[in-house]
Amino acid sequence: MNEIMHVGLTLFVASALALWNGWGLARLLLPATLQPWRPLLAPLLGYTLTILAGYWVVRLVGGLRPALGLLLLLGGLLNGLAWRRTGPPNLAAALRMHWPALLAALVGVAIGVAPLVNYGYAAPIGGGWDVENYWPTARYLTHGPVSAIATAPANPLRDINADPPRIGLTLGFSVWQGCVDLLSGGEPLLSFAPLLAWLRALGVIGIYVLLQALFELRRGPAAFGALLAALNGLLLWTSFFNFGMQLAAWPLIPLALTLGLAVVQPASGQQFHTLIAAAIGLAAIPVAYYPALGPIGLMAAGSGIVTLWQTPLRWPLIRRALILVLMTLVLAAPTIPDYFAGFKFRYSLPLTTLGLFRFVPLSDIVGLTLFRLREAPEPLSLFTWLAAITLAGFAGYGLLAGPQRGRWFGLLAGAGGFLLYLRFGAEYHYGYLKAAAYVGWLAGALAASGLQATLERLPTRPQWLRRLVAGGTTVIIGGAVAFTGGRVVADHWSQPGLFANELPALGELRRLVPAGSTVWLTSDPRVQGVTSGLAAYLLDHAVVWGDVRTGYASSSAGEPDAVADYALLQRDEDPTLWGYADPPIWSGGSYRLYQRPEGLLSHVRLVQMVDGGQSVTISLSANRLSLATPFSNQEQATRWIQLQTVTLTPAELFIDGQRYAVPAGLGAITIGPLTTPHTLAIQAGATPIQLRAVSLLAIPPASAGEITHSVALSAASVADGLRVATTITMLNPDSGPLVVALELWDRRQGTLFGRYGLRFGPAVTTQPATVAIDLATGASAAYSAAGEPLPLGVQQGAVLPGSYTARLWVGTDQRALLTPVDLFAFTIDRVGGITLDWVAQYPLMAARIDRPLQPLAAQFGEDILLRGYDLLAERVTAGDTVAITLWWQALRSNLDERSMMLQLRNDRDERIADADGPPAAGGRPTSLWQAGEVIIDDRRLAMPANLPPGRYWLVVGSYRWPSLELVTLRDASEPVWRIPVEVIVPDDA
Q: What percent of the chain has pLDDT over 70?
């Protein structure tokens, strides 16, 4: 099923489930004062019953499957009883009476899922990492209770969420999501964003009922107040930032206030069974989100005090309120120990900042201005000033002359008191933001009350005056709030905040990797974090091994020498380091998937230096490798060992007394056949060698010796005060040119201190070079071993406070082909003082560098092969520059002079732009190519700013220079290779 179609299915199933579980409750338990709003309160009650009962089951008994079965059965029994007592539902009458509320809710849903329509696939819309909690937890709960999560197959996300209370995760949202997924046949990735939008809309319906039932607003003003809540930009941003727990409790705010105040009233005929509905709504709050108890409790207390003061029958009200509290505590009983098991501890930790170090202004809270996490508050424009004055005026008039003014005072006192505590007591920016999103609707709702009071006091004639006031107010306030909400949608319109480069490609893992398989998941720092979390989630049907850090925590699983059925590696990693081999069986996003090679039994990634005279012992059994004690398994078998080695000069190893020649660079040595059990004694000669990896094989390896098209290097940083000199020694005999760069970033804040790059051509001997950076001044220089200056490309950033790390980059202009390593770190304090924290040395590293992202075998003429290309974006914007890397290989030496063609052409084959020229910007002309050499050719092509959107071609070819004779593509219908690209219009066009 199309993923976008599943958005509609998710919304339908969520609505149907809520109505099924709530219709009978609403008919049987609501007090008479709320009977007119039974159709709207039914889905709210059904939602609360589902998460509360589902929580009890998964917390104490089993998974969501039996919970859902029990809920559907209970809902059916209640519906049958209600039908018998009160008659069938009247859908037509409900639509006629409450269509404004449904329209406001529909608007809320529409803007909540709008970005997904543009993406064309399911994704989390914003940038919050919390999907690492919600997605796996919902999946796990569909299979078993909370206690069974820890026993699920190995997975980093299992380890994060094995005991949800201890990590500060309430289960309400995951219970609801799991139930909807079971009924719709979907999964959390597909249902997550639609359900957040649905919950916002459900809260909008609750606000409409609250305004009508307790604050006596007519249908029009109540719908206006509800619509402003649906459009509120801060609440929408909160939804887009993936705050599932907060959104799970959002509908409970108006529901708890409505039911709580309605059922404690000692009205004539008010029976105690009506307290059950309110108790269910209140007990669901800690199931959804403990912190919601703060604003809801204070708002309810404020309104309750006013109600108590206004009623003459105070003791019956107090008695019913106490009974309600007691019933709520009974229904919410498991949440009390859960709080002390984890949440209390979480709240004792330093306050979360989310990178937010300012308090959200009032204009953001009420939805008149746009909140952006990394930006300062925006000033009010002339129009928003007018809207702010209008909003304040009508809200003030609502307090003075609107209906139920006392309740409004109580409600505002509770909400305001909570915000004031977070603002001046706790001084908690992040908590203030989330609480503000909860209470921002009050301003619009109170303004709607003031608007109603104003219209009631205007004369009925002329009618145009009343219409002018109502229409003008709607346009001024509603237009400003709607404009801000639209800008929030626009901020998230182009691509998801998370996984933009990974979805939907990684969804293929569900199909490619059989359930129950073992998968080795990479620990490469380029994908560590939330990207690793996505991969781990999409592999939760398998057993995931590796030392993996996701966005929130690290996890380790699998034996050190284990070889999984599959390996999911970062796309630039050398698979042989992990025991696998090219080609991958699948590529997508930042990853490549490899399958276990035939005959490979065990593999250990050593990365261990052995200097002259040092030795390493490796024990092997029939199926295992170990660097520790020998195995007790005495099974005899014939096996082979393959060692991967790295050295900058030719060297030698002595293995079981036999001499083995070690080639310079990256190489492989085969040892065997051997009879297990066996212990290998490996001793280095005079030259230092890195033992990179060792494999145990049941069959002889296909090849050994020098591994061509690879680079070996060492890197060491040395400090002299704040001057750091990094010496890089490279052996790169048959490929290049390569870019070697030091990138100095504060990655937490995204601040660049500087990027310093050198370019190394191929050479049969080692090439030393030093990059010196003065951290105090930013001055930099590069020089050779002889002290001669070398050209150094510098991109200077900003000297801002932060914690910076210098990361070594080796590869092309666009890709790091060597897993980046950190060479030194320093800190800049708030007054500009710099402290060098540490420096590091890496004696030997290696990488294979003949691995284009798009492999090809396109031969031009008799002597040049296009082995592939890297094009990091197939959709480009007019006016931007296309970056592409071409990977050429010489089939023979002594070529004549050639120029390489890179042209942008339209469907009529008209040339629009070009970046023709010698390979590697003239750094490696074809006349110098040697047979077998791989040439890395980085190119940039500027797109015309006025280029119409549509499909174009990047045309790649070669021609002789200076004759311009085209060297044609062999065995092809065209003389050139074509790469399709799509040109899009700039966002601000």
A: 98
Give the mean pLDDT of 668-679: 92
| DSSP assignment of 85-128 | HH----HHHHHHHHHHHHHHHHHHHHHHHHHHHHHTS----S--
Beta-bridged to residue 640, according to DSSP, are: 697
Alpha-carbon distance of 8 to 834, in angstroms, equals: 54
Q: What is the amino acid identity at position 687? A: T
For residue 329, give Cα distances in angstroms to 298, 305, 684: 17, 21, 71
Q: Which residues neighbour 576 within 8 Å (Cβ) at sequence distance 6 or greater?
A: 644, 693, 707, 848
How much is the CA Rg of the chain, to the nearest whole Å?
33
Closest CA to 613 of 573, 572, 654: 654
| Nearest residue to 796 (alpha-carbon basis) of 814, 774, 813, 825 | 774
User: Rounded to an integer, what distance in angstroms lies between the CA atom of residue 145 and that of residue 61?
Assistant: 6
pLDDT at 583 over 50: yes
Q: Which of 494, 495, 482 is nearest to 236 (CA)?
A: 482
Give the architecture-level CATH label for domain 710-848. Answer: Sandwich (2.60)
Our CA dihedral for 248, 40, 5, 247, rounded to 10 degrees, sits at -10
- Mean pLDDT of the 359-372 span: 95
- Over residues 319-363, the pLDDT tens digits come to 888 999 999 999 999 999 988 887 766 666 666 677 788 899 999
- What is the identity of the amino acid at 922? G
Q: What is the pLDDT of residue 272?
A: 74
Residues in the chain: 989
Q: Give the chain's count of helices (H) and strands (E).
A: 26, 38
What does the pLDDT average to over 904-919? 93
Closest among 707, 733, 690, 714 to 581, alpha carbons compared? 707
Beta pairing partners, 795: 755
Overall average pLDDT of the 511-529 stretch: 94
* Segment 327-332 long-range contacts (CB within 8 Å, at least 24 positions apart): 327/275, 327/276, 327/279, 328/279, 328/282, 328/283, 330/279, 331/52, 331/279, 331/280, 331/283, 332/52, 332/282, 332/283, 332/284, 332/285, 332/286, 332/287
3-state secondary structure of 650: coil
In this predicted model, what pLDDT tens digit does every residue of 155-186 receive, in sequence order? 999 998 998 887 888 999 999 999 999 999 99
DSSP state of 360: P
Q: What is the pLDDT of residue 268?
A: 44
Q: What is the pLDDT of residues 391-419, one digit of tens each?
A: 999 999 999 998 999 899 999 999 999 99
- Pairwise CA distance, residues 354 & 126, whole Å: 14
Overall average pLDDT of the 465-481 stretch: 92
What is the separation of C-alpha 725 from the centre of its chain, rounded to a whole number of angstroms?
37
Q: Name the pLDDT band for 303 (thresholds 50, 70, 90).
A: confident
Query: Dihedral of the CA atoms 641, 646, 650, 654 (nearest 10)?
Result: -40
Supply φ then ψ for residue 870, to 5 degrees.
Answer: -115, 120
φ and ψ of 294, to 5 deg: -65, -65
Residue-wise pLDDT tens digits, 610-638:
987 788 999 999 999 988 777 777 889 99
Task: Please provide the CATH number assigned to the domain covering 854-984.
Answer: 2.60.40.2550
- Kindly give the pairing relationship between strand 751-760 and strand 763-774: unpaired
Domain spanning 600-706: CATH 1.10.357: no
Within 13 Å and on the Cβ side, how many CA atoms surround 81? 14
Helix (H, G, I), strand (E, B) or coil at 526: coil
Are the beta carbons of 888 and 872 closer than 8 angstroms? Answer: no
Hey, what are 822's tokens? Answer: 């950190």
| pLDDT of 365 strictly over 80 | yes
Q: Please give the residue that has the higher pLDDT: either 357 or 857.
A: 857
Q: Which of 154, 150, 143 is nearest to 178 (CA)?
A: 143
Chain-centroid distance, C-alpha 596: 29
